[in-house]
Amino acid sequence: MTNAPQRLFIDGEWTEPAGGHYEVTDPATEETVGLAPEASRAQVYEAAAAARAAFASWSRTRPGERAAILDRAAGLIQRDSAALADLARAESGATTATARGMQVAVGAARFRRYAKGALEPVEEAVAPQINEAGPMGRAGIFGALAVRQPVGVVTCVTSYNNPWANPAGKIAPALAMGNTVVVKPAPQDPLSVYRMAEALAEAGVPPGVVNVVSGSAPEVGEAAVDAGDVDMVSFTGSTAVGQRIAEVCGRSMKRQLMELGGKGAALVFEDADLGAAVAGIGTTFSFYSGQICTAPTRVLVQRGVQDALIAQLAAYAGHLKVGDPAVKGTVVGPVISAAHRDRVESYVELGREEGARIVTGGERPDPTGRGFYVAPTLLADCTPDMRVVREEIFGPVVVVVPFDDEEEGIALANDSDYGLIDYVWSGDVARAFRVARRLRAGGVGVNTIGRNMEAPFGGFKRSGVGRDVGSYALHAYSEVQSIVWPG
Fold first, then answer.
1. Known InterPro entries for this protein (predicted)?
2. Alpha-helical segments (H) within 186-335
3. What's the Rg (C-alpha) of the chain?
4. How confident is the model over 223-237, as a mean pLDDT?
5. How far apart are CA 387 and CA 217, in angstroms?
6. Which of these, 51, 261, 314, 320, could form a disulfide with 331 (CB 3.0-4.6 Å)?
């Protein structure tokens, strides 16, 4: 799909990769989308050093200048959105509508948002304090100011499920705050991130402020994390990888922002609007083919409506068109790779062995004779101890567990290593909010799977560390400095 092999972007220059190139595969057709560069450890360190050298001047630029660059980048992404969406679809396997509306469009919107974010105040007055005379000095009234300062060089390690929104959600607020970045894209779909770097360069980002290094080998990501010039790591991905990154960061006290795994509980009470609940839960079957950490994959349903909910979810899944994401009308595209398809299928088989009932799905679809497809799968008769209930599958698989009363439902929801986003469906709004407050999750959707993109986003427990989105992302990519003076 792309003509020339992609080069790395280091210190404002397009650089030949020391490790050659590897193929990026279209999950729908199994054809080669393009050749991605394989950076060496030395080249990653070179990128971090370039970011370190650029930090001094970039962090002192006027907020208005940073805002103008981010705004221009958004405009350039929108200008080329059709071609960029085609590439994103081919790399990630997302449907055309998703690639246009939820990948490229959201990426551009995040650059627009943080163009405004660059202009947000970074100083906050602290109430004066009256001090008595003593060993620390004379009596007096002391004023104080809390000032948010950029952290420094930020490594952004991005996820494969959205090669536009996820990187933009890291790069844009980091740059808005005056940080410089080293971006290590997911190995499965890195080409879109290089297009983002092109837009930023054309928009006027100075050399070294944005650097992109990719590779299929683990050493590339490891170097981007352990580089001595890096002050902070922002990572989206699995909890297991996040734990390893955190261990490395701990050795040199690097700051961290971690958005990790999820096993979202969807509590459905007997008085819920079942149609709305099914529509929300059903997105797990279709949206990114279940490859999304916020999906309501663990359905906890009050026993009186269990059979009705299962029947409606099965019917919903049965109406979804599985096939080539480039074809109009396709709802469920492929998962990212053959290896991931096999992993998801192994979980379905595990569920069967554990005693779950496969209501729908369970067979490998073959809509085109090629591609990495998984059928929307619904597992019923599940118990809380099953691995399919406890572990993140990251595919179009929903498990159903019944509960009898509110207390049991809350207990089941909280009985998880994860705590990213949970959901509550109930006709009693007071109860829904009461239950939401007791859920150990970073976010709770009440009668919706919708998101407020200014609300803090992040997880409890093993679902992550820190919060981003909206102004919270600006806080995440900054340190707080106190300035004190005598009145």
1. Ald_DH/histidinol_DH, Ald_DH_C, Ald_DH_N, Aldehyde_DH_dom
2. 191-203, 218-226, 239-252, 274-281, 283-286, 306-318
3. 24
4. 98
5. 29
6. 320
> DSSP assignment, residue 209?
T
Which whole-number Å values give the CA distances from 296 to 164, 290, 342, 349, in the listed order? 23, 9, 22, 21
Q: What is the pTM of this model?
A: 0.96
Burial class (CB in 10 A: 0-12, 13-18, 19+), 415: middle
Burial of 460 (0-12, 13-18, 19+ CB in 10 A): middle
Active site residue 349: no
Which is catalytic among the residues 156, 293, 345, 392?
A: 293
Question: In one letter, which amino acid is 373?
Answer: Y
Question: In the 8-state DSSP scheme, what is residue 134?
Answer: B
Q: Please give the Cα distance from 202 to 238 (Å, whole number).
A: 33
| Contact present, 128 and 113 (Cβ < 8 Å) | no
Residue from 99, 165, 162, 103 nearest 330 by CA: 99
Residue 354 falls in the annotated catalytic set: no
Domains 8-260+463-486 and 265-458 share a fold: no
User: What is the fold of 8-260+463-486?
Assistant: Aldehyde Dehydrogenase; Chain A, domain 1 (3.40.605)
Tell me: the pLDDT tens digits for 328-375?
A: 999 999 999 999 999 999 999 999 999 999 999 999 999 999 999 999
Q: Tokens 């496969």 identify what position?
A: 358
| Tokens encoding 301 | 């349903």
Question: Domain ranges in the chain?
Answer: 8-260+463-486, 265-458
Q: Topology of domain 265-458, per CATH?
A: Aldehyde Dehydrogenase; Chain A, domain 2 (3.40.309)
CA distances from 150 to 168, 192, 479 (A): 18, 26, 6
